[in-house]
Amino acid sequence: MSTTTTFVGMPASAPPAHPAFPQAAREAVRDARLRGTLRHATHTIRAKRAAAVAEVSDWAALREAGRQIKDHTLRHLDRYLVQVEQAVTAAGGTVHWAADAAEANRIVTDLVKATGESEVVKVKSMTTQEIGLNEALEAAGIRAYETDLAELIVQLAHDRPSHILVPAIHRNRGEIRDIFRSEMGEWGRPAPEGLTDEPAELAEAARLHLREKFLRARVGISGANFMVAETGTLVVVESEGNGRMCLTLPETLISVVGIEKVVPTWRDLEVFLQTLPRSSTAERMNPYTSLWTGTTNSATADGPREFHLVLLDNGRTDALADTVGRQALRCIRCSACLNVCPVYERAGGHAYGSVYPGPIGAILSPQLRGTASGIDASLPYASSLCGACYEVCPVAIDIPEVLVHLRERVVQGGEAVRQGNRVVLRPARGHAAERAAMRAARWALTRPGVLRAGQRLAARSRRFAPRTLPGPGRAWTDSRDLPPLPAEPFRDWWQRTRGGKDTAR
Amino acid sequence: MRVALFLTCVNDTLYPDTGRAVVKLLTRLGVEVDFPTAQTCCGQAHYTTGYRHEAEPLARHFGEVFGGYEAIVTPSGSCGAMVRELYPRMGERARAEGRGEALAAALAPVAARTYELTEFLVDVLGVTDVGACYPHTVTYHPTCHGLRGLGLGERPRRLLRAVRGLELVELPGAEECCGFGGTFAVKNADVSAAMGTDKVRNAASTGAEVLCAADNSCLMHLGGLMTRLRTGMRPVHIAEILASTEEEPAA
Amino acid sequence: MNSRERILGRVRRALADVPHDDTPYERAVDRGYLRAHGERSAEETVELLAENLADYRAVVHRCAADGLPSLIARLLARRGTRSVLVPPGLDADWLSATGAARVPDRAESTPHELDRVDSVVTGCAVAIAETGTIVLDGSPDQGRRRITLVPDHHVCVVRVPDQVVASVPLALERLDPARPLTWISGPSATSDIELDRVEGVHGPRTLEVVLVTGRADAGAAGRKDTGTAERPDGGRRAGG
């Protein structure tokens, strides 16, 4: 697997220098080891998720309630953001607002610098991946240690994440062992002598390597799965205990959270704490969930004394302005859509050129970043529209609907909101021939006589029909034969025989 | 009962046998079939590729051609889903764009009266044994639009199980997409072919002679891979199996 | 304009198409889902909790209140525990039978100090049967969050059936959002290697849950048990 392609963070300005999806996927499709690893992992979790969901008889009602809670929140997002700000502040936290990645990185960097520390421990967080926080901290001389096992693997390998839940899903156990053996020593405690590829041993190696970092850490950085507007409570759902370490041991905690993560009430958690674990790791409940409200106080003296919440926009309000696309903001990052997607399974996460891969990435990235770059304009087409993603989504995001909607934006252009400004997008480049063909087909197909003439011409010249097609058709005949042309189209048979009444055949 | 056959442009042009099979099958079951010759294309490829505005005239044309029939039957899950699910959405979008009710009003009648073939047989005619005979081993691939779009469920399998002489074998990974996906097949040809190859291998692993589906677009993709991979299997549309009888067996 | 105003302004403009809606939130969401899955007696609910805890590799024990001190002593001894962290409000009787050195939960303890303690014994706020979850809320019998995090062995006592609820919705009703909450379902685990679950990462690798019935009378029974504590049988460790 090549790791030479440029990492694509979300800073909206520079167009990502990443090959378009079909080109990026081509390499992955031919990588037999990667195909095997992804197939094994996604099929394992698919079956487990189905079983975990089948256990609860009211899944459809939970899914519908989750959809409604998120839709309601999004429709009143300004109100709930102000409310969560008030509640967090009242509980002793400090709330910051970041319009884009650069601003969020600046805020966090300044907060870390103010503590005088030069290293931080991090809970796995899609949001900080999205804004490229680690790189920004490094530029300021601050070392960020990823503590989630999969994030650690990615960080040690100088790799890019390829899955929302399991960023190192593209690595099998043997590769992970090799990475641990060769890289752990560079970052701290080396891997134990004679480390094998047994998952339990690999987990133990990570435990030993990270323990010293947890125990000395003064600053922790996290995202959050949910923030509750009425109470100011933040929720982090995890498995390993690295989250608990980062959320409770340091003196300062900084949480960077997308504005769409707010839910109105405490009670709303009863829906998502049921649907998220079952959709995500296919468990009845994940091993650890931490909920905290503001900072510690002298009575409890439990956890960080300073708590900062950074509310991040970074393209979310642009997506919110799109009446079809805004449903993508319901996403709770469970990754069920990735695990069930036949395209993701074969193309791998890196082909999507974003920290958000798979079906949800294909509708989120082009909305957060716009459709100007080659990769972003190709993502809406990275789907056969099979609908498996929609079926498993615990908040019922109609991903195929949004994909088609974004395809329209790519080929037709039109009104959109970018960085808060209403703009008129021009159709993307490279679709001129297709557009002409679609127009010509529409012209012909609204005229039955023209269609019939075409069919007859094809039938009469069928002996000369080529085995390989030129132009875009070659993409078909490179791997598939064409069906033989029939002697006459159906409509001629129908007219000739009056629907079969005139002859038996 | 008189119904209109919406054959689809792909079947009309490339798979007339499927059309003849539908006519034969429905006629046998006492249905009077009409084929409105003004029909062309539902506009699905335009719509799903992002050319909704080019698809609209095709949808309006469809509404004009089929508007007068009490039932419209199609041997295609994806074109059926286009008319039933996406036509109403096109109407809504036109309304949201301030273009009034005209499109929604023109499409509502045909959306409500369109049935996929197996759905029409089981739900409207109320039959599962259509009197067919097909002495072959068959495995069935539920296509995505039929399965998840229209919710055909067990209907096709129930119909196949009632066919005399037919041995139905389970397809591993049946509910996974075959990788056709319309223009996806050429825009993302590598991934599409990889998906199709896995599907064909799964089908071949069953030992069946025939891979059956209710959509010729998917079968065109899979059949094109089958000959390349030299599996010895052949793709057959479910209508051709259901039309086959002892007296007039299908090939 | 600061970023707060900029973002809120963008949100309001983005929602310009949304019709004004004053439906109170209580009526805005259709909560047609269940409060709990299935009808169970209190006893059956406890049974389900035990099953689901064990399914995620927690080690489950059951005893009557008067047998609790001896059971805890046995669990600590079996593990080879020499020191045990004690939340400030833990019932003194619970540890009356163990010889392990008690380490109080103090604000000034450093994480490194906690790391040298073998075990921790706590109560809990509530336990959820359907998911096999125990919830800690930092009450005096549970202590600060870190004392149940850093030591590698956690013994958690659940008073059954009083502290057991069937489901997640029923648990949330009982909890106070203002308190720091930790939901624990089995020992720490990861699915990060090939999406398969492996127990034992950063949190305690051994979670033992004691389901205790009835009320001990003044702890007298517990003290009697002191002499019968089993001998240590070496440092058995699960999941590591």
Automatic annotation (TrEMBL), chain A:
It comes from the Bacteria. Residues 489-505 have a biased composition (Basic and acidic residues). Residues 83-312 form the LUD domain. Signal peptide: none annotated. GO terms for molecular function: 4 iron, 4 sulfur cluster binding; metal ion binding. The keyword Ligase does not apply. One of its GO terms (biological process) is lactate metabolic process. Keywords: 4Fe-4S, Electron transport, Iron, Iron-sulfur, Metal-binding, Repeat, Transport. Gene3D superfamilies: Alpha-helical ferredoxin, NagB/RpiA/CoA transferase-like. Residues 406-496 form the Lactate utilization protein B C-terminal domain. Residues 463-505 are annotated as: Disordered. The keyword Iron applies. NCBIfam families: LutB/LldF family L-lactate oxidation iron-sulfur protein. This is Iron-sulfur cluster-binding protein. It comes from Streptomyces echinoruber. The lineage of its organism: Bacteria, Bacillati, Actinomycetota, Actinomycetes, Kitasatosporales.
UniProtKB/TrEMBL annotation, chain B:
GO terms for molecular function: oxidoreductase activity. It comes from Streptomyces echinoruber. The lineage of its organism: Bacteria, Bacillati, Actinomycetota, Actinomycetes, Kitasatosporales. Residues 3-83, 138-222 form the Cysteine-rich domain. Coiled coil: none annotated. It holds the Pfam family CCG. InterPro entries: Cys_rich_dom. This is Fe-S oxidoreductase. One of its GO terms (cellular component) is cytosol. It comes from the Bacteria.
Automatic annotation (TrEMBL), chain C:
Residues 92-212 form the LUD domain. This is LUD domain-containing protein. It comes from Streptomyces echinoruber. Pfam families: LUD_dom (PF02589). PANTHER family: LACTATE UTILIZATION PROTEIN C. The lineage of its organism: Bacteria, Bacillati, Actinomycetota, Actinomycetes, Kitasatosporales. Residues 222-240 have a biased composition (Basic and acidic residues). InterPro entries: FTHF_cligase-like_sf, LUD_dom, NagB/RpiA_transferase-like. Residues 218-240 are annotated as: Disordered.
